[in-house]
Specification:
The structure is a homodimer. By secondary structure, chain A is α/β, with parallel strands linked by helices. Chain A has a single domain (3-225), classed as Spore Coat Polysaccharide Biosynthesis Protein SpsA, Chain A (Alpha-Beta Complex). Chain A has seven helices and twelve strands. Chain A has helices at 32-41, 58-65, 81-90, 112-125, 166-178, 186-191, 212-225, and strands spanning 3-8, 26-27, 30-31, 46-53, 72-76, 99-104, 127-132, 138-142, 145-149, 155-158, 162-165, 198-201. Chain A binds chain B through residues 129, 131, 134-142, 144-146, 148-150, 154-159, 184-185, 187-188, 191, 196-199, 204, 208, 210-211, 213, 216-217, 220, and chain B through 129, 131, 134-142, 144-146, 148-150, 154-158, 184-185, 187-188, 191, 196-199, 204, 208, 210-211, 213, 216-217, 220.
């Protein structure tokens, strides 16, 4: 089954405190965009990548993605995450019928093994996402008061890449837009229609880089990989 | 109102992969135990500290705590967190009637401002804990499937120090032990009795140090403080 990846790189990344969009920040000499696109392209199942970037940065992104081993199309994203994902879906070749992965450019340390696990589970179940356990005690809050403690064994934090049969994701997205619903990830668009989504074990290394601290952490991880 | 702190330092800290209990690991030249005890003692409202450590490490902890500016009693902890907290409560002077804070030694970067905010809120409301927003998309999971997306605006992650009027905490603990209930934090013991617990804004700097990565992060924070 042909499998392609949409790389969401259109975020402003305000919490980084930088002047460039987050995907264009450098991590050990390469932008997050390049590192994430390479990580996806390194997975044998992925045949091509669609990178979705801010409209003002399409040309630069095309230059950066030229050297990738797999074909990479660059398109302009939209205001919200779901607008960008929709732009990515529209850039898939007409007649494409396989599995599509949606991945955050802010997770550049994703492993080949994790990408392939999501691909396999999405092919088998129609939809699959990586999740990791929650480390903290989680409280329900309201009006400045604690309303209770949540059983964290029944909760998990979602990561990307999230993988879907294209027909399921396209249908779920059409419905979310038609209903005016904001989804915080792609899985949520399917969940609200009652469509099954499988989970696979995510990885602490696949952390979303949100703050300068996160970027420093990723630099250390990459240095350790090199034995430096 | 007299206010004392119980410092929970009896954890083994398996995820650190070290041979010493976590509170005895070094962070920029001082153990987590010393740093946490100093952080609590630096808050003007705190008059004394009870440190609860593994039975085998009581003597070493007494040596480490000798140099503190505020009185510090060291006692042996128990198997579970709640056993250690109970040992700490038993070490408070008889007749003590004020507010007690319970703090994890694994959160050595807590600020004076946060300690004082918890003390003030606990004095006012009887019980208060610091919470921080959740950064990730949170899913309900079961049987390897995603059951739904949780509205994270109504959830928060609990931190320490957690502060309580002693009479309320003692009552809640008695009931938890009598009922054979395991509580993952002190607040939970009050919540299950329907006692109100206020929340105050926690801090990302007050992160619980669980892995070697967390320890490296804390070293960087301390170096940055020194302008190194």
């Amino acid at each position: 089954m042909d499998t392609r990846a949409i790389l969401v790189a259109a975020g402003r990344g305000e919490r980084m405190g930088a002047t460039r969009p987050k995907a264009f920040l450098s991590l050990a000499g390469q932008t997050l965009l390049e590192r994430s696109a390479r990580a996806l392209g390194a997975a044998p199942s992925i045949t091509a990548v669609v990178a979705v970037v801010p409209a003002s940065d399409v040309d630069e992104a095309r230059d950066l993605c030229e050297a990738l081993a797999k074909p990479c199309v660059v398109v302009a994203g939209g205001e919200r995450r779901q607008d960008s994902v929709r732009a990515g879906l529209a850039a898939l070749p007409s007649g494409f019928e396989g599995v599509v992965l949606v991945h955050d450019a802010a997770r550049p340390l994703v492993s080949i093994a994790l990408v392939e696990a999501v691909v396999q589970a999405a092919r088998e179940h129609g939809a699959a996402i990586p999740v990791v356990p929650l480390a903290d005690t989680i409280k329900q809050v309201g009006d400045g008061r604690i309303a209770g403690t949540v059983d964290r064994d029944r909760l998990a934090a979602a990561q990307t890449p999230q993988g879907f049969r294209l027909d399921l994701l396209a249908r779920a997205y059409e419905r979310a837009f038609a209903d005016g619903v904001v989804v915080t990830d792609e899985s949520m668009a399917l969940e609200r229609l009652g469509l099954p989504v499988a989970c696979v074990p995510g990885s602490s290394r696949n952390r979303k880089l949100t703050t300068p601290d996160d970027l420093a952490w990723a630099e250390r991880v990459l240095r350790a990989d090199l034995g430096a």
